[in-house]
Amino acid sequence: MRISTRGMALTAFSALAAGTLFTAPAGATAFHQSISVHHDAYVAQDGSVTLSGPYHCEQASPTGVMQIKATVVQEDGSRLSIGAEQPVCDGREHRWVAVAPGRFANVHPGRAEVTAELQEIHLSGLMPRSVTTVARDTRDVEVHGH
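The structure corresponding to this sequence follows.
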């Protein structure tokens, strides 16, 4: 079987591209997508927690949908993961807001570490097949009571 020079070059380029794609650093963003956490979070008298920050993303792949997930961790072991509203992926910057009702939250005023993730859910029919984090930000925030 004879392999053309063009075929060999295409094979080599494909292998290089795949290696580059799968060795990107963990904190990297895909397709210039990003998300950030605001420096302040809020807990209401009823215990509900509000987190926010900016994000921008491109349209998800044809077999995927985008979502935002935020996780709060406090020194005493309190931990809360919540979803934000459905992101608008049009390449422009938008604000995300995630609110957890008080009956599910165990967060109090003080310092916390918040991680926000912009994720693409890959679907197989109606069922999720995999979840890929395309952008992530973790920062120390101050949780304010109001």
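Residues 28-145 form a domain with the Immunoglobulin-like fold (CATH 2.60.40).
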